[in-house]
């Protein structure tokens, strides 16, 4: 767990703008993309997900749909990511993410942490 926590903390994610969260393959993979520098982003990819839950407080107070927002309107920022054992056999890992106006709990088998050029990733809000 410590190695995974260190890899995440090495991104220096605190207060970084979250640019997108996606679910693929019927929820088997969850991807969280957040800003690093002007030209790069970090991608946290949670793999072999068993359980994913979230609470999004943005939806309670607004009539605008997130899909219609531009980058400046998004209010999601990386605040905290914690890592813990989920089961006694160490098959699954539990992650808790605080994204300011959204919290997530993800239980999965593994995670990858990658820094990639921003221009290699497309975002839904780029056309807004």
Give the termini separation.
39 Å
Average pLDDT score = 90
Please give the share of residues in helix: under 10%
Strand order of the largest sheet: 1-2-3-6-5-4
Structural class of the secondary elements? mainly beta
Provide the gyration radius in Å.
15 Å
Order of helices and strands: HEEEHEEE
Strand content: over 45%
Give the low-pLDDT segments. Answer: none
Biggest sheet layout: 6 strands, antiparallel
Specify the overall morphology. globular
Count structural domains.
Answer: 1
Counting DSSP H or I runs of 4 or more residues, the number of helices is 2
Q: Please provide the count of β strands.
A: 6
Overview in brief:
By secondary structure, the chain is mostly beta strands. The chain is 9% helix and 46% strand.
Could you characterize what this model shows?
The protein has 128 residues and is mostly beta strands. The protein has one domain (2-65, 73-119). It has 2 helices and 6 strands; from the N terminus they run H-E-E-E-H-E-E-E. It has helices spanning 2-9, 58-61; strands at 18-24, 29-35, 40-56, 80-85, 93-98, 102-117. It has a 6-stranded antiparallel β-sheet with strand order 1-2-3-6-5-4. Strand 4 and strand 5 form a beta hairpin.
SSE layout and pairing:
Elements: H1 2-9, E1 18-24, E2 29-35, E3 40-56, H2 58-61, E4 80-85, E5 93-98, E6 102-117
Antiparallel strand pairs: 1-2, 2-3, 3-6, 4-5, 5-6
């Amino acid at each position: 767990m410590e190695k995974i926590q260190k890899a995440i903390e090495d991104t220096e994610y605190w207060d970084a703008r979250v640019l997108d969260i996606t679910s693929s393959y019927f929820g088997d993979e969850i991807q969280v993309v957040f800003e690093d520098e002007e030209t790069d982003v970090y991608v946290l990819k949670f793999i072999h997900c068993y359980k994913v839950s979230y609470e999004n407080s943005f939806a309670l107070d607004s009539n605008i749909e997130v899909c219609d927002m531009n980058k400046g309107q998004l209010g999601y920022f990386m605040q905290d990511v914690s890592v813990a054992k989920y089961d006694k056999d160490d098959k699954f890992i539990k992650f808790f993410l605080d994204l300011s106006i959204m919290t997530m709990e993800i239980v999965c088998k593994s995670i990858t942490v990658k820094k990639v050029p921003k221009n290699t990733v497309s975002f839904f809000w780029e056309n807004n």
